[in-house]
Amino acid sequence: MSLLKTTALLPNPCSTTALSSLQCGTLLQSLSNSKSLTQAQQLHALVTTGGTLRHNTYLATKLATCYAACGHMLHAQLIFDQIVLKNSFLWNSMIRGYACNHSPTKSLVLYREMLRFGQKPDNFTYPFVLKACGDLLFRGIGRKVHALVVVGGLEENVYVGNSILSMYFKFGDVAAAQVVFDKMPMRDLTSWNTMVSGCVKNGETVGAFEIFGEMRRVGVVGDGTTLLALLSACGDVMDLKMGKEIHGYVVRNGGNGRVHNGFLVNSVIDMYCNCESISCARKLFEGLIVKDIVSWNSLISGYEKRGDAFEVLELFGRMVEGSAVPDEVTVISVLGACNQISALRLGTSVHSYVVKRGYGVNVAVGTALIGMYANCGSLICACCVFDEMPEKNLAVWTVMVTGFGIHGRGREAVSIFYEMLGTNVTPDEGIFTAVLSACSHSGLVEEGKEIFYKITRVYNVDPGPTHYSCLVDLLGRAGYLDEAYAVIESMKLEPNEDVWTALLSACRLHRNVKLAEISAQKLFELNPNGASGYVCLSNIYAAERRWKDVENVRALVKKSRLKKAPSYSFVELNKMFHQFFVGDTYHKQSDDIYAKLKDLSEQLKKAGYKPDTTSVLYDVEEEIKEKMLWDHSERLALAFALINTAPGTTIRITKNLRVCGDCHTVIKMISKLTDREIIMRDISRFHRFRDGLCSCGGYW
DNA sequence: AGCTGCCGTG
């Protein structure tokens, strides 16, 4: 309804004819469905000019309710405060308004005030009070409200019952929800849907399918919401078979025949992505008559999650060319893709787009930007975005701590970690992992240990396997191998693969064969198919020149058909990506690259370079080993970059694995020899080579 | 006057 039309029908408020309460009330009633603030405000102006509001509880109540329904709680509260005689209708509207507009605390405050005023809560009050308790994870208060519901005899109301279910699911208390559900005298579709989606959200996938089965047995027909939850469940457990069945069900019944433009199809795309069937997702997507923003985002995020960055960028390009306008969600996935392939230039242009469209206020977008800049080697830009963020949640702090960590700036990581503790953000396992890992990359043993022991004592968080692996890594890298081993032995929980891997790689670094054999043994027991443990152990034997043992390990690898992931490096040049594998001769500049490397190796030798061949796995002549080192992918990428960029430009290389020890030495020397800054990102951190030195200071 | 609800950040 347009306001212009409406007001034309009404008497002029400035005229002597006053607007009747009933007229305004009906008008507001219809407006409350339109959820338009401007209409409500104009009407508000209309009635107040008439001088009717102050003394008209009926109208004021209607207006407050209208504002609350629009989600404009500030206006609603102003009017609410003026009303002397508050009826239950008004209280309920306000409690609902706050609960549904991200102010659950205010909702509960008002509920308490309502009780103090002697107003009895009813079946319209409790659903929102319960919602607020659930959102705030107020378990104690939630249970008390549940008790009051029982006392008030409202437990049998289906709306109240459904809200109780939902609240217990938010608490993660599936059993309590089940008990309530079993006792419900009447269940509607929402009750069933709440059960199904509640189970899914709590990881009870089997339970969700059981409820669905029961639902069908008693003849309840599911709707889009049911299917949505089930599709999400299929994705969680990667049950492609069930997913396809539900897809069929969606095609036959779902969305009232709106399958090709309804949102359900997007969830099917998402399901296929989560079931690692990207081709099914793609096929469905391409066949869509109407591709909305969520369709695009579902597929793009699917490619991003599986690490197909180039596919993400291609789809993004297609999207921009077409009519779809990328939104915050799109941008987050695209930034994630830039992050994966260190596409700094592209990431920066996405940042401009973010600014242009005003997406920067979104916390998730800011987080993605910081992550992109940090992972593309531009810590300064990451810091700028971080500093400018008006609202910093846990994810923001975590990504910034991680960013400092991978750049070897442990002190800054620790410092902002403590800065975060000074705010009202509560730390979780994730940020402890980030700060501990930052400590280990910088050799901050004491700081790291202190934080580790604070996890339990001060923050009541139980350290998980990841924290232990960080601590072992921290101690191990710094050479405290026995202490690291003692930590593992003291663990209350079973040490996992990561813990032993951390000890094993520390053993390689400090050449401790005895502990290496222990950790490798544990690693093989935990995962006989993991290749990295075998590779690491054979490296350790090779360093000790125990070729027989190397051979034995390699035989084991062969027998179990384990394959090490092929190592590669790449560089971005004029928005093109050039990828190099070990000993790669496919690049069209291949001859020039090898010539450049030969030239560099000679110059390095004159400067006193002695190759460290311990990382070469094969028992061959020393000379051949040296030659093999010069085939490493990071050197090919570096030579290529040196040939194709102007003197003095910074070179950025990305490698999918850890940089090898000899390459590290060589790149240090080349940075001095060619007077270049070389920024190299490997699997776990950044190395900034300048003037013969590296920012990692030997910790990597 | 209500309860359940697609794609996204560490």
Q: SS-based structural class?
A: mainly alpha
Q: Could you give the count of β-strands? A: 6
Give the overall shape. Answer: elongated
The major β-sheet equals: 6 strands, mixed
Bin the helical content: 55-70%
Structure annotation, total helices: 37
Separation of the first and last Cα atoms:
65 Å
Question: What fraction of residues sit in β-strands?
Answer: under 5%
Order of strands, widest sheet: 2-1-3-4-5-6
Q: Which residues sit in consecutive blocks of at least 5 with pLDDT less than 50?
A: 1-18, 255-261
The Cα radius of gyration reads 31 Å
* Residue-averaged pLDDT: 88
Protein model, in words:
It is a single chain. Helix content is 65%, strand content 4%. The protein starts with a helix and ends in a 6-residue tail after the last strand. It has 700 residues and is mainly α. A six-stranded mixed β-sheet has the order 2-1-3-4-5-6, with helices on one face. The radius of gyration is 31 Å and the shape is elongated. Helix 16 packs antiparallel against helix 17 (278-286) and helix 18 (293-305) runs antiparallel to helix 19. Among the domains are: 471-564, Serine Threonine Protein Phosphatase 5, Tetratricopeptide repeat, CATH 1.25.40; 570-694, no CATH class. The model is unreliable at 1-18 and 255-261 (pLDDT under 50). The chain binds one DNA strand of 10 nucleotides through helix 6, helix 8, helix 10, helix 12 and helix 14.
Question: What key attributes describe this structure?
Answer:
DNA-binding, 700 residues, 65% helix, mainly alpha, PPR_rpt, DYW domain-containing protein, zinc ion binding, repeat, Serine Threonine Protein Phosphatase 5, Tetratricopeptide repeat, PPR_At4g14850-like_plant
